[in-house]
Amino acid sequence: MAEFVSVPCKTVHKIPSNISFREAVLIEPTAVALHGIYKIIENTEKNSLDNLSIIIFGDGPMGLLSLYAAKTKNPNKLFLVGKSQQKLDIAKKLGCDEVINTVGCSEMEAINLIKKQIGENTIDIAIEATSSNKFVDSAINEALEVIKKEGTLILIGLHDTLSISFNQIVFKELVIKGVLSSPNTWDEAIKFVLDNKIKIADIITHEFILDDVPKAFEYVRTNSGELVKAIVNIQ
User: Fold this and answer.
1) Left if phi > 0, otherwise alpha if psi is -120 to 50, otherwise beta: which for 215?
2) Backbone angles phi and psi of 150, in degrees to 5
3) What burial class does residue 131 get, using C-beta atoms within 10 Å of its C-beta: 0-12 exposed, 13-18 middle, 19+ buried?
4) Burial, 143: exposed, middle or buried (Cβ in 10 Å; 0-12, 13-18, 19+)?
5) Is the separation of the CB atoms in 33 and 94 below 8 Å?
6) Are 124 and 56 in contact (CB under 8 A)?
7) Per-residue pLDDT tens digits for 46-98
């Protein structure tokens, strides 16, 4: 939150004049989401998700941006699992085919609910994009349950030590890929925000002025259920 910051020139990207600062704050998480999608398609024959069905666990900014980034690659079907109806409604606006609300469900109840709503669809890819250590173990185990044999699990984000169903990985011969940061995706992320800024700006639900930064951090910490993306306006 410094007034000025010095960084190497090679790490700086110019914001186009027709992207506002408000929209530009979405460039970094969008770059991470795009990197995650490229982890999926790097072994496919073409730059698309044709005929692949994807399920995303997490209805926060990374989950929603991963959803929208995946949508541009023409998947067969997109599902998103979350615990906030407000956020799931945003997912529908961003083009999600099916949203699944598991609030209040135990892990097994969530698995049964997800399988019921998936129906006969085969899940090729699962993306873990939960933002809470409280739910990440369950999210990964739910993902491992619904991915098809030889499917792929993409892990976005850093978490504490986890307790997961390791045998599912072995029995299904799953591929696990981690996603760290956003290498080589910033220029495309800028273009992505520029082309899609009206829709992805929907994930910004709260805005604070610079003087209220302490209040903003406290609000984010205690109101995560109703908050998707909060930003600080430094102008």
Assistant:
1) alpha
2) 65, 25
3) middle
4) buried
5) no
6) no
7) 678 998 999 999 999 999 999 999 998 999 999 999 999 999 999 999 999 99
The tokens describing 198, both together, are 């009206």
Q: Which residue is associated with the tokens 């995560």? A: 224
Length of the chain counted residue by residue: 235
* Close Cβ partners of 222 (under 8 Å, ≥ 6 residues apart): none
C-beta separation of 53 from 76 below 8 A: yes
**pLDDT, tens digit, 9 for 90 and up, residues 18-48:** 999 889 999 999 999 999 999 999 877 667 8
Global pTM exceeds 0.90: yes
For 93, list phi and psi in degrees, rounded to 5.
Answer: -65, -30
| CATH number for the domain formed by residue range(s) 23-179 | 3.40.50.720
